Predict the 3D structure of the following.
Amino acid sequence: MSGHVEQTSLDTGALDARVTVGRGTFTLDAEVYVAPGEILGVIGANGAGKSTLLGALAGTLPLRSGQITLGDRVLSRTDAATPAVSVPRAARRVGYLDQRARLFPHLDAAANVAFGPRAQGRGRRAADTIAREWLARVGLGDRGSARAEALSGGQQQRVAIGRTLAADPALLLLDEPFAAVDVASSVDLRHLVASEVRRLGVPTILVTHDPVDLIALADRVLVLEDGVIGQLGSVADVLGAPSSPFAAEFAGRALIRGRASDHGTIHLNGAPVSEVSGTGQLPRPGAAAVGSFDPAAVRLTSPAATSTAASNAAIAAEWLGTVSAVFASRTGVRITCTEWPEFVAEIPVSRAVHQHIAVGDRVGLSLAQSDLTFAVPRAPAHP
Ligand SMILES: Nc1ncnc2c1ncn2[C@@H]1O[C@H](COP(=O)(O)OP(=O)(O)OP(=O)(O)O)[C@@H](O)[C@H]1O
C-alpha cells in the first residue's frame, strides 16, 4: 500500500525572537520577526554573529536573555519575571540545512528522507510514503534506492532538502545551502526551496554570502554588524541603499559619508547635495548620512565642466578630485581620488583610453539624483 499520508503543520506561525547571546567576549543582541512563508535573508561580515543567531534559534546556544516564540509555542525564555523555558533541540521542530548534505551513507535516499518522520513516531510504511512523496517533489522520484555516493552533489542536496522538509519543520534555518552546488543546480534548488517555503508557510531564515540568494529568494534582508542589526528592510531597500561598508560591498555599491546640515541639504565628502531625491531614508538635520551609488553611474568630466554640471538640476552631487589610482575591474576601469580614497568611479576601458585618465589628473565627478541613495546608519548598541 502506498497511499498519500497527510502531513499537517500543527503550529505553523511566525517566528518572533528577541535574543541576547554571549560567546566569549562577543555578544549578539537582535530582534527577529519572520512571517509564515517569509524568507528573511541574513548577511554580515565574518564574525558578525550569523551562526550565533541560528544557534540560538535552533536551541544549541543558550540565551543570556530574551524570548523565542514560534507560532503559539515559546521555545526559549530567559528573563527575571517568569520561569525560564528552553525547549530541547529535538522538540523544537526547527529544520536546519547548510551547504553539506550530510546524508547517512549507509542508507538509501528514501531511507534518508524517511528518517525524520520515523524519528517523530511514524510507522515504517507511512514514513516511506512520505519519503517517496518528498523525493518526487525534489525531482528524484526515481532515485529512492540510490545511496549518497551514487548521487551528484546537487542531487544529494535535493535529498537533504527533502529530508529536512519531510520532518515537517515549523521554522527553517538555511546556512548557505547552495554554496557548494554548481550554478545550474543552484538555480533549480533556489526555485525548489522558494516554492516549498511558500507552499508550506514555514518562516525561513537564509544566511548567505551570495547576493543572488537574496535577489532570488529573500523577502527581506537583515544585516548583522558586530552582533547587532545594522540594517533591516526589503531586498531592494537594503541592496539599493546600504548603510555599512559590508552591505555596500555586498551590493556592489560605493559608500560616501556625510552629515545633514539642514533640511534638504546633505554634505557628502564636503560636497553639498541639495534637493536630494534619493530613495531610502533621509537623515534628520545634524545626523550622519550615508549615501551610496553604483560606481558605474559616476560621471567623469574635465574640471572645467563641473560648473556646467552644477546648473543641471539632475545632478545631485559633484566633486573635484585628483586621481590617485587607476586599476582594472571586472567590468572596466576603477578610479579613486586622493581626497576620498573610498570614493570609486568605474568607466568602460574605451572611455578611460579616450579620456586619457591617469594618476595625478584633476577630474570632475558627478552623480545624478536618481543614482544616489541614502540610508541612516544605526547607532551601535554596544559602546
Ligand atoms: N565557541 C566560541 N567561543 C567563543 N567565541 C566564539 C565561539 N564561536 C564564535 N565565537 C565568536 O562569536 C562571534 C560571532 O561568531 P559567528 O560564528 O556567529 O559569526 P558569523 O557571522 O557566523 O561568521 P562567519 O561568516 O565567519 O561564519 C565571533 O566574533 C567569534 O569569534
